[in-house]
Amino acid sequence: MVNRIKVINDVGELVTIFHAADTEVKRKLLLDLSTGWVTMPQIDEKYGTEGKKSLLYLDKIRMIESQWITGNKGPEKAYHTYYTNVQINLIGSMSDLSDIIFATTLNDEQLQDYEGKITGMMVNGGVFVGDVADSLKISQTLLKGIVNRSSILTIKGYKIELVNGA
Fold first, then answer.
1. CB under 8 Å to 128, separation ≥6 — which residues?
2. Backbone phi and psi for residue 53, each to the nearest 5 degrees, phi listed first
3. CA 44 to chain CA mean position, Å
4. pLDDT, tens digit, for every residue of 12-27?
5. Over the Cα atoms of the chain, what is R_g?
6. How far apart are CA 141 and CA 80, in angstroms?
7. Residue partners of 136: CB distance under 8 A and separation at least 6
8. What is the pLDDT of residues 128-163, one digit of tens each?
9. Dihedral sign of CA atoms 14, 17, 21, 26 in order
10. In sequence order, what are the beta bridge partners of 159?
């Protein structure tokens, strides 16, 4: 097994790390994925719909890798964590840190409210980060934290877009 280190250099990326295991299902799934290859039917059987959603989030934040394996019913896609370690190297202002802590601790209803507002602003599949921050009257750091926390939104360049399949 190759040892790979996920290096966090941006304060906004903390949200993805903290959110990767913020429920019991996500925590157990992440542990399973770190110890071996797991297929979608195994995830579905053990964790149900929440396990599938958790896997999609881990894929969105690029914490897992996949490969095809031969199972009892033919070829199946299996998943495993890409990284074996996480290293955090960052300096951020107290303002940035407070925004990231706020984004990390949003409850599901608050997150869905922000997601709804952001998706409502989308035209032609995306919207610019600065436009959303201005419209919502929040900092770009907080906005990036919200998008990093979201399972349906992603940032590509300077635009917020829907995650494939969302």
1. 158, 159, 160
2. -65, -40
3. 19
4. 888 988 889 989 999 9
5. 17
6. 30
7. 114, 117, 118, 143
8. 999 999 999 999 999 999 999 998 999 999 999 998
9. positive
10. 128, 156
Report which DSSP code applies to 157. Answer: T
With vertex at residue 158, the alpha carbon angle to CA 126 and CA 103, rounded to the nearest 5 degrees, is 85
- Confidence at 74, pLDDT banded by 50, 70, 90: confident
Q: Side chain identity at 18, as an amino acid letter?
A: F
Strand ranges of the sheet holding 159-162, from the earlier edge strand across to the other edge = 126-128, 159-162, 153-156
Enter the DSSP assignment of 163.
Answer: P
Strand segments, DSSP code E, in 62-143 are: 64-71, 74-81, 85-88, 126-128
Q: For the chain, report the end-to-end CA distance as a whole number of angstroms.
A: 32
Where in the chain does DSSP place strands (E)?
5-8, 38-39, 64-71, 74-81, 85-88, 126-128, 153-156, 159-162
